Amino acid sequence: MDSVTQAALGAAVAGAVAGRKCTPKVLLAGAALGSLPDLDVLLSYGDPVSDMVKHRGFSHSLFVLMPFSLLLAWLWQKWRPTCFSFGHLWLLVTACLVTHPLLDSLTAYGTQLFWPINIPIAIPSLFIIDPLYTIPLLVVLLASLLWRDRMAKLCTVGLAVSSLYIAWSLTAMNMIESRVEQQLAGTPLAGQPVFITPTPFNTVLWRIVVQDEESYFEGLSSVIDGDTEIDFLQKPLGTWPAGLASEHQQMLEHFTGGFIRYEQRQSALVASDLRLGIGEQLAFQFALADNSNEWTAIEPIRVEGAKARLAQIPNLWLRLLGSQDIDANLCHISECPQEAVPLASR
Protein backbone atom coordinates (compact mmCIF):
# COMPACT_ATOMS: atom_id res chain seq x y z
CA MET A 1 0.00 0.00 0.00
CA ASP A 2 1.02 3.64 -0.30
CA SER A 3 3.16 5.30 2.36
CA VAL A 4 0.34 7.48 3.76
CA THR A 5 -1.81 4.41 4.36
CA GLN A 6 1.00 2.49 6.03
CA ALA A 7 1.85 5.40 8.31
CA ALA A 8 -1.82 5.86 9.23
CA LEU A 9 -2.19 2.13 9.93
CA GLY A 10 0.93 2.10 12.10
CA ALA A 11 -0.28 5.09 14.10
CA ALA A 12 -3.75 3.59 14.62
CA VAL A 13 -2.30 0.23 15.67
CA ALA A 14 0.05 1.95 18.13
CA GLY A 15 -2.83 3.92 19.61
CA ALA A 16 -5.02 0.86 20.02
CA VAL A 17 -2.25 -1.24 21.60
CA ALA A 18 -1.08 1.57 23.90
CA GLY A 19 -4.53 1.92 25.41
CA ARG A 20 -4.70 4.47 28.22
CA LYS A 21 -1.00 5.20 27.81
CA CYS A 22 -1.54 6.54 24.30
CA THR A 23 -0.17 10.02 23.55
CA PRO A 24 0.52 11.97 20.35
CA LYS A 25 4.15 10.79 20.60
CA VAL A 26 2.96 7.19 20.60
CA LEU A 27 0.95 7.84 17.43
CA LEU A 28 3.97 9.45 15.80
CA ALA A 29 6.17 6.49 16.79
CA GLY A 30 3.56 4.10 15.39
CA ALA A 31 3.50 5.99 12.08
CA ALA A 32 7.29 5.74 11.87
CA LEU A 33 7.27 2.03 12.70
CA GLY A 34 4.51 1.41 10.19
CA SER A 35 6.59 3.06 7.47
CA LEU A 36 9.88 1.38 8.39
CA PRO A 37 9.61 -1.79 6.23
CA ASP A 38 9.37 0.29 3.05
CA LEU A 39 12.82 1.78 3.57
CA ASP A 40 14.10 -1.09 1.44
CA VAL A 41 13.21 1.07 -1.58
CA LEU A 42 16.45 2.92 -0.83
CA LEU A 43 18.41 -0.23 -1.67
CA SER A 44 19.59 -1.04 -5.17
CA TYR A 45 19.90 -4.67 -6.20
CA GLY A 46 21.77 -3.86 -9.40
CA ASP A 47 19.07 -3.92 -12.08
CA PRO A 48 15.39 -2.95 -12.43
CA VAL A 49 14.06 -6.52 -12.42
CA SER A 50 15.89 -7.38 -9.20
CA ASP A 51 14.74 -4.09 -7.66
CA MET A 52 11.14 -5.02 -8.45
CA VAL A 53 11.31 -8.67 -7.41
CA LYS A 54 13.29 -8.13 -4.20
CA HIS A 55 11.25 -5.16 -2.98
CA ARG A 56 9.02 -6.24 -0.11
CA GLY A 57 11.58 -8.94 0.61
CA PHE A 58 13.61 -9.28 3.79
CA SER A 59 12.20 -6.04 5.28
CA HIS A 60 8.67 -7.47 4.98
CA SER A 61 9.47 -10.95 6.25
CA LEU A 62 7.78 -12.15 9.42
CA PHE A 63 10.95 -14.14 10.10
CA VAL A 64 12.90 -10.87 10.18
CA LEU A 65 10.39 -8.47 11.71
CA MET A 66 9.56 -10.62 14.73
CA PRO A 67 13.14 -10.84 16.12
CA PHE A 68 13.85 -7.28 14.94
CA SER A 69 10.89 -6.01 16.97
CA LEU A 70 12.32 -7.74 20.03
CA LEU A 71 15.69 -6.04 19.51
CA LEU A 72 14.08 -2.67 18.81
CA ALA A 73 11.91 -2.85 21.92
CA TRP A 74 14.94 -3.77 24.05
CA LEU A 75 16.99 -0.88 22.67
CA TRP A 76 14.07 1.49 23.11
CA GLN A 77 13.55 0.45 26.71
CA LYS A 78 17.27 0.68 27.42
CA TRP A 79 17.98 4.09 25.88
CA ARG A 80 14.55 5.79 26.08
CA PRO A 81 12.74 4.41 29.15
CA THR A 82 8.95 4.71 28.91
CA CYS A 83 5.91 4.05 31.05
CA PHE A 84 5.38 0.78 29.14
CA SER A 85 6.48 -2.57 30.45
CA PHE A 86 8.87 -4.41 28.15
CA GLY A 87 6.17 -6.88 27.11
CA HIS A 88 3.70 -4.10 26.33
CA LEU A 89 6.31 -2.16 24.37
CA TRP A 90 7.34 -5.25 22.41
CA LEU A 91 3.71 -5.97 21.53
CA LEU A 92 3.25 -2.38 20.29
CA VAL A 93 6.42 -2.46 18.14
CA THR A 94 5.61 -5.90 16.74
CA ALA A 95 2.03 -4.98 15.86
CA CYS A 96 3.10 -1.80 14.04
CA LEU A 97 5.79 -3.59 12.03
CA VAL A 98 3.89 -6.78 11.18
CA THR A 99 0.63 -5.17 10.06
CA HIS A 100 2.57 -3.41 7.29
CA PRO A 101 3.47 -6.53 5.25
CA LEU A 102 0.16 -8.20 6.11
CA LEU A 103 -1.65 -5.29 4.47
CA ASP A 104 0.78 -5.32 1.52
CA SER A 105 -0.01 -8.99 0.95
CA LEU A 106 -3.57 -7.96 0.03
CA THR A 107 -2.34 -6.16 -3.10
CA ALA A 108 -1.42 -7.48 -6.55
CA TYR A 109 2.29 -6.76 -6.17
CA GLY A 110 2.87 -9.53 -3.68
CA THR A 111 4.87 -9.67 -0.45
CA GLN A 112 7.58 -12.10 0.67
CA LEU A 113 6.13 -12.73 4.10
CA PHE A 114 8.28 -15.81 4.61
CA TRP A 115 11.63 -14.61 3.22
CA PRO A 116 14.18 -16.21 2.79
CA ILE A 117 11.68 -18.79 1.51
CA ASN A 118 10.98 -17.39 -1.96
CA ILE A 119 7.19 -17.58 -2.05
CA PRO A 120 5.54 -14.22 -2.87
CA ILE A 121 2.16 -13.92 -1.15
CA ALA A 122 -0.52 -11.94 -2.99
CA ILE A 123 -4.25 -11.98 -2.27
CA PRO A 124 -5.12 -8.99 -4.48
CA SER A 125 -8.33 -7.74 -2.89
CA LEU A 126 -7.11 -4.13 -2.53
CA PHE A 127 -5.63 -1.65 -4.98
CA ILE A 128 -2.31 -0.18 -3.83
CA ILE A 129 -4.10 3.14 -3.14
CA ASP A 130 -7.64 2.91 -1.81
CA PRO A 131 -9.10 6.02 -0.16
CA LEU A 132 -11.99 4.06 1.35
CA TYR A 133 -9.48 2.09 3.40
CA THR A 134 -7.23 5.01 4.30
CA ILE A 135 -9.68 7.83 5.04
CA PRO A 136 -11.30 6.22 8.13
CA LEU A 137 -7.84 5.80 9.66
CA LEU A 138 -6.91 9.42 8.95
CA VAL A 139 -10.24 10.66 10.35
CA VAL A 140 -9.88 8.82 13.66
CA LEU A 141 -6.26 9.92 14.02
CA LEU A 142 -7.27 13.54 13.57
CA ALA A 143 -10.16 13.07 15.99
CA SER A 144 -7.85 11.47 18.55
CA LEU A 145 -5.68 14.59 18.52
CA LEU A 146 -8.76 16.68 19.28
CA TRP A 147 -10.14 14.34 21.95
CA ARG A 148 -6.98 13.00 23.55
CA ASP A 149 -8.77 11.26 26.39
CA ARG A 150 -10.35 8.96 23.78
CA MET A 151 -7.28 8.25 21.67
CA ALA A 152 -7.16 4.48 22.11
CA LYS A 153 -10.90 4.01 21.60
CA LEU A 154 -10.90 6.13 18.44
CA CYS A 155 -7.91 4.24 17.03
CA THR A 156 -9.67 0.96 17.76
CA VAL A 157 -12.79 2.16 15.95
CA GLY A 158 -10.69 3.19 12.94
CA LEU A 159 -9.02 -0.22 12.80
CA ALA A 160 -12.40 -1.94 13.08
CA VAL A 161 -13.80 0.08 10.15
CA SER A 162 -10.74 -0.52 7.99
CA SER A 163 -10.80 -4.24 8.85
CA LEU A 164 -14.47 -4.43 7.84
CA TYR A 165 -13.49 -2.84 4.52
CA ILE A 166 -10.87 -5.56 4.02
CA ALA A 167 -13.53 -8.17 4.76
CA TRP A 168 -15.78 -6.54 2.15
CA SER A 169 -12.95 -6.53 -0.41
CA LEU A 170 -12.40 -10.26 0.08
CA THR A 171 -16.14 -10.87 -0.23
CA ALA A 172 -16.33 -8.83 -3.45
CA MET A 173 -13.33 -10.67 -4.84
CA ASN A 174 -15.01 -13.98 -4.10
CA MET A 175 -18.15 -12.78 -5.92
CA ILE A 176 -16.14 -11.97 -9.04
CA GLU A 177 -14.26 -15.28 -8.82
CA SER A 178 -17.59 -17.13 -8.79
CA ARG A 179 -18.76 -15.21 -11.87
CA VAL A 180 -15.59 -16.03 -13.75
CA GLU A 181 -15.73 -19.72 -12.82
CA GLN A 182 -19.34 -19.96 -13.98
CA GLN A 183 -18.61 -18.21 -17.27
CA LEU A 184 -15.51 -20.28 -18.05
CA ALA A 185 -17.18 -23.59 -17.19
CA GLY A 186 -17.64 -25.65 -20.33
CA THR A 187 -15.22 -23.52 -22.39
CA PRO A 188 -11.62 -24.30 -23.39
CA LEU A 189 -10.52 -21.85 -20.69
CA ALA A 190 -12.04 -23.80 -17.82
CA GLY A 191 -9.30 -24.52 -15.28
CA GLN A 192 -6.83 -22.09 -16.85
CA PRO A 193 -4.91 -19.57 -14.67
CA VAL A 194 -7.02 -16.57 -13.63
CA PHE A 195 -5.91 -13.35 -11.99
CA ILE A 196 -8.48 -10.99 -10.43
CA THR A 197 -7.71 -7.60 -8.91
CA PRO A 198 -9.62 -4.36 -8.23
CA THR A 199 -9.27 -1.41 -10.59
CA PRO A 200 -7.76 1.81 -9.19
CA PHE A 201 -9.08 3.30 -5.94
CA ASN A 202 -12.07 1.00 -5.38
CA THR A 203 -13.31 -2.53 -4.69
CA VAL A 204 -16.42 -2.39 -6.88
CA LEU A 205 -14.94 -2.70 -10.39
CA TRP A 206 -12.58 -5.63 -10.93
CA ARG A 207 -10.14 -6.54 -13.69
CA ILE A 208 -9.90 -10.17 -14.78
CA VAL A 209 -7.04 -11.78 -16.71
CA VAL A 210 -7.40 -15.36 -18.01
CA GLN A 211 -4.51 -17.19 -19.66
CA ASP A 212 -4.28 -20.04 -22.10
CA GLU A 213 -1.23 -21.29 -23.97
CA GLU A 214 -1.02 -18.58 -26.64
CA SER A 215 -3.37 -15.79 -25.54
CA TYR A 216 -4.71 -13.98 -22.54
CA PHE A 217 -8.19 -12.57 -22.07
CA GLU A 218 -8.87 -9.33 -20.24
CA GLY A 219 -12.23 -8.11 -18.97
CA LEU A 220 -13.99 -5.98 -16.38
CA SER A 221 -16.75 -6.86 -13.96
CA SER A 222 -18.54 -4.69 -11.41
CA VAL A 223 -20.18 -6.15 -8.34
CA ILE A 224 -23.29 -4.12 -9.18
CA ASP A 225 -23.59 -5.34 -12.79
CA GLY A 226 -27.12 -6.35 -13.71
CA ASP A 227 -25.79 -8.71 -16.37
CA THR A 228 -22.92 -10.73 -14.92
CA GLU A 229 -21.65 -11.87 -18.33
CA ILE A 230 -18.09 -10.59 -18.80
CA ASP A 231 -16.87 -9.35 -22.18
CA PHE A 232 -13.24 -10.26 -22.72
CA LEU A 233 -10.59 -9.00 -25.11
CA GLN A 234 -8.29 -11.67 -26.53
CA LYS A 235 -4.66 -10.61 -26.85
CA PRO A 236 -1.47 -12.46 -27.82
CA LEU A 237 0.60 -13.71 -24.91
CA GLY A 238 3.83 -14.05 -26.85
CA THR A 239 6.62 -16.47 -26.07
CA TRP A 240 10.14 -16.43 -24.72
CA PRO A 241 12.73 -17.67 -27.28
CA ALA A 242 13.27 -21.40 -26.91
CA GLY A 243 16.62 -22.31 -25.43
CA LEU A 244 17.48 -18.75 -24.36
CA ALA A 245 18.57 -18.70 -20.72
CA SER A 246 17.88 -15.60 -18.63
CA GLU A 247 17.99 -15.42 -14.86
CA HIS A 248 15.90 -12.25 -14.91
CA GLN A 249 13.20 -13.84 -17.07
CA GLN A 250 12.99 -16.74 -14.63
CA MET A 251 12.80 -14.31 -11.71
CA LEU A 252 9.88 -12.48 -13.36
CA GLU A 253 8.06 -15.71 -14.21
CA HIS A 254 8.25 -16.83 -10.59
CA PHE A 255 7.39 -13.43 -9.13
CA THR A 256 4.32 -12.92 -11.35
CA GLY A 257 3.09 -16.50 -11.19
CA GLY A 258 3.48 -16.72 -14.96
CA PHE A 259 1.28 -13.72 -15.77
CA ILE A 260 3.72 -12.22 -18.26
CA ARG A 261 3.27 -11.00 -21.82
CA TYR A 262 6.21 -11.10 -24.26
CA GLU A 263 6.24 -8.61 -27.12
CA GLN A 264 8.91 -7.78 -29.70
CA ARG A 265 9.46 -4.05 -30.11
CA GLN A 266 11.96 -3.38 -32.86
CA SER A 267 14.91 -5.65 -31.91
CA ALA A 268 14.03 -5.89 -28.20
CA LEU A 269 11.85 -8.47 -26.47
CA VAL A 270 9.81 -6.78 -23.76
CA ALA A 271 8.30 -8.69 -20.83
CA SER A 272 5.27 -7.06 -19.16
CA ASP A 273 3.73 -7.94 -15.80
CA LEU A 274 0.04 -8.50 -16.60
CA ARG A 275 -1.08 -8.16 -12.99
CA LEU A 276 -0.36 -4.46 -12.53
CA GLY A 277 -2.19 -2.11 -14.86
CA ILE A 278 -5.02 -2.28 -17.36
CA GLY A 279 -5.10 -2.66 -21.11
CA GLU A 280 -1.82 -1.42 -22.52
CA GLN A 281 -1.09 0.62 -19.40
CA LEU A 282 1.02 -1.96 -17.62
CA ALA A 283 3.18 -0.62 -14.83
CA PHE A 284 6.19 -2.96 -15.09
CA GLN A 285 7.75 -3.64 -18.48
CA PHE A 286 11.33 -4.72 -19.12
CA ALA A 287 13.45 -5.34 -22.20
CA LEU A 288 15.16 -8.68 -21.47
CA ALA A 289 16.52 -9.85 -24.84
CA ASP A 290 17.75 -8.44 -28.14
CA ASN A 291 17.53 -9.82 -31.69
CA SER A 292 19.92 -7.55 -33.60
CA ASN A 293 21.66 -10.67 -34.93
CA GLU A 294 20.20 -13.54 -32.94
CA TRP A 295 18.29 -13.70 -29.66
CA THR A 296 20.60 -12.77 -26.80
CA ALA A 297 19.70 -12.13 -23.18
CA ILE A 298 20.60 -8.60 -22.08
CA GLU A 299 20.77 -6.71 -18.82
CA PRO A 300 17.20 -5.65 -18.02
CA ILE A 301 16.07 -2.21 -19.15
CA ARG A 302 12.93 -0.65 -17.68
CA VAL A 303 10.52 0.31 -20.48
CA GLU A 304 7.90 2.99 -20.02
CA GLY A 305 4.39 1.81 -20.84
CA ALA A 306 1.41 3.78 -22.09
CA LYS A 307 0.40 6.57 -19.72
CA ALA A 308 -3.03 6.77 -18.14
CA ARG A 309 -5.02 9.86 -19.06
CA LEU A 310 -7.56 11.84 -17.07
CA ALA A 311 -10.01 11.46 -19.96
CA GLN A 312 -10.21 7.72 -19.18
CA ILE A 313 -11.49 8.22 -15.63
CA PRO A 314 -15.16 8.88 -16.62
CA ASN A 315 -15.24 5.59 -18.56
CA LEU A 316 -13.94 3.67 -15.57
CA TRP A 317 -16.42 5.45 -13.31
CA LEU A 318 -19.33 4.61 -15.62
CA ARG A 319 -18.18 1.00 -15.80
CA LEU A 320 -17.89 0.87 -12.01
CA LEU A 321 -21.52 1.96 -11.77
CA GLY A 322 -22.58 -0.94 -13.98
CA SER A 323 -22.61 0.63 -17.46
CA GLN A 324 -21.61 -2.39 -19.54
CA ASP A 325 -21.40 -0.40 -22.76
CA ILE A 326 -17.79 0.19 -21.74
CA ASP A 327 -17.16 -3.56 -21.65
CA ALA A 328 -18.13 -4.01 -25.30
CA ASN A 329 -14.94 -2.19 -26.23
CA LEU A 330 -12.12 -1.86 -23.74
CA CYS A 331 -10.45 0.44 -26.26
CA HIS A 332 -12.28 3.21 -24.41
CA ILE A 333 -9.82 2.48 -21.63
CA SER A 334 -6.73 1.01 -23.20
CA GLU A 335 -6.89 2.16 -26.83
CA CYS A 336 -6.20 -1.30 -28.17
CA PRO A 337 -7.75 -2.45 -31.46
CA GLN A 338 -8.97 -5.93 -30.51
CA GLU A 339 -12.68 -6.71 -30.41
CA ALA A 340 -14.42 -8.20 -27.41
CA VAL A 341 -15.08 -11.91 -27.76
CA PRO A 342 -17.69 -14.09 -26.01
CA LEU A 343 -15.85 -17.01 -24.44
CA ALA A 344 -18.77 -19.37 -24.91
CA SER A 345 -18.27 -19.22 -28.67
CA ARG A 346 -14.69 -20.50 -28.57
UniProtKB/TrEMBL annotation:
What residue ranges are annotated as transmembrane?
A: 58-76, 83-103, 123-147, 154-176
At the top level, the lineage of the source is Bacteria
One Pfam family this sequence matches: YdjM
The name this protein carries in UniProt is Metal-dependent hydrolase
Keywords, alphabetical: Hydrolase, Membrane, Transmembrane, Transmembrane helix
Q: Among its keywords, does the record have Hydrolase?
A: yes
* Protein source organism: Photobacterium lutimaris
**What high-level taxonomic lineage is stated for the organism?**
Bacteria, Pseudomonadati, Pseudomonadota, Gammaproteobacteria, Vibrionales
For this chain, one GO molecular function annotation is: hydrolase activity
Q: Does the keyword Protein biosynthesis apply?
A: no
PANTHER family on file: HYPOTHETICAL MEMBRANE SPANNING PROTEIN, MEMBRANE-BOUND METAL-DEPENDENT HYDROLASE
